[in-house]
Amino acid sequence: MGMQSRAAAATLALMISAGGVSAQGKDGAASKASVDKAIAGWPERPTLGANEMRAKYGEPREATTERLVWHDAGPFKRITVLKLETPHDFPLPHVDFLEHTITYNVPQDKVGDLIAFDASSTINRTVGELSARCDLEGHNVLTLNLDHDIVTGKKSVKEARQAFGEIVVQDVQGKHPPYVEALQFKPANAKTAAFSDRPVIPGSPVRAADTDSAARQAIDRGKMAEAEILATVTAIDLNEINAAAQAQTKDISQPVKSYAKLLHQEHGMNLDQTLKLGQQIGATPVITTSVERLQKKGAGELAAFVQLDGQAFERAYIEAMVKGHTEALAKIDDQLQKSAGNAALKKHLTGTRAHVASHLEKAKALEAGTKRSASR
Fold first, then answer.
1. What is the DSSP letter of 222?
2. 329 vs 12: CA distance, rounded Å
3. Which string of DSSP letters, residue by residue, matches 300-322?
4. Are 96 and 120 in contact (CB under 8 A)?
5. Domains, the chain, ranges and CATH?
6. Could you report how far apart the first and last alpha carbons of the chain are, in Å?
7. How far is CA 227 from the centre of its chain?
8. Which of 164, 178, 182, 158 is nearest to 2 (CA)?
9. Is the preceding peptide bond at 91 cis, omega within 30 degrees of 0?
10. 283-325 pLDDT, tens per residue?
């Protein structure tokens, strides 16, 4: 706070971001001309902040009409300058538009204290990030230093707020207080700062790469085959649920919309049964590299047509359902059924296969009807 307040592509490639398009220059940074154009209509104070950051760190990696973003600039994971000015009265009235983000693990019991100290702070424990937003870089640095003091127990919230005001006074008097000049601690390592949290849905999968006890137990119990099968079925169900949810928001024919609703419900029920089965047989689903590839494949295929609407979406969706359910049947027949040693799991796979086969036949019928309509 204060009173004033990666994608590296080939040279001249286009980077498209929300709110604008910026041509990329050297090392993936936006070109000066594209940044000048992006901020041409900005208010005076964010314009000043943007140009101060440009002078110190060079051109940003991302430039749109709403924000500029630098990645890995100095000790910061990210620096963002926003067009939006947000009034903020601590330690005295100014506007926030400049945000500095570091990699930092904020303990759960300190989250409330940091917000009480400075309501402009943003904490993302999942990624392992702590951000301060103000109008001056030095005062964001000051916020982060005092945040660290609160987390480490060096200062209380009340002491930190008082210190903030005192240090700002020193700053405006030209005394160059260290807490404004630089971070007084080293930001955390991204691998150790991130906190993926814990599932609350009983029987939820765990990641094979996790080091928590749930993942280790799931793998060490000697039920890795069952664990991977359960996670694979879960991934198949979730891929179809995601696609069906999108289809139900589109302007498509009623038969296809009804089909999407059916898939949403039946894959949802199958997902629930899969997670419960894992609990019954003592096998926690484990997201292995193979399962993650299946998750990514579903996302990539849906991404290819999710922006369409009307008949274009309808055709693409039905085509994807034919392809996806055909592949799911092959995976169940050729891999999952052969690897399943547990009788209850084999029975569940048989039921899953029946649903998938039924969905495939319905998709083929819809596809044939679509082709007949198109040929008229």
1. T
2. 45
3. HHHHTTTT--HHHHHHHHHHHHH
4. yes
5. 14-190 (no CATH), 206-375 (1.20.1260.10)
6. 66
7. 25
8. 164
9. yes
10. 989 999 999 999 999 999 999 999 999 999 999 999 999 999 9
Residue 218, C-beta contacts closer than 8 angstroms, at least 6 positions apart = 206, 227, 283, 284, 285, 286
Burial of 164 (0-12, 13-18, 19+ CB in 10 A): buried
> What radius of gyration, in Å, describes the C-alpha atoms of the chain?
26
Instruction: Give the pTM.
Output: 0.77
pLDDT at 295: 96
Contact 59, 52 (CB under 8 A): no
Closest to 128 in 3D by CA, of 176, 78, 172: 78
Residue 127 has pLDDT above 70, yes or no: yes
Confidence of residue 370 (pLDDT cuts 50, 70, 90): confident
Secondary structure letter of residue 174 according to DSSP: T
What is the residue type of 57? Y
Q: Are 208 and 224 in contact (CB under 8 A)?
A: no
Biggest alpha carbon–alpha carbon distance for the chain: 81
Task: Say if residue 125's pLDDT is above 50.
Answer: yes
- Strands 206-207 and 286-287, sheet pairing: parallel
Q: Which two tokens stand for residue 190?
A: 């991204």
Q: What span, in angstroms and rounded, lies between the C-alpha atoms of 321 and 313?
A: 12
Question: Of 125, 161, 124, whose CA–CA distance to 143 is shortest?
Answer: 161
Other residues' Cβ atoms within 10 Å of the Cβ of residue 93: 10
Beta bridge partners of 21: 16
Q: Which residues of 11-26 are buried (b: 16+ CB within 10 A; e: fewer)?
A: eeeebebeebebbbbe
Structure tokens at 18: 């929300």
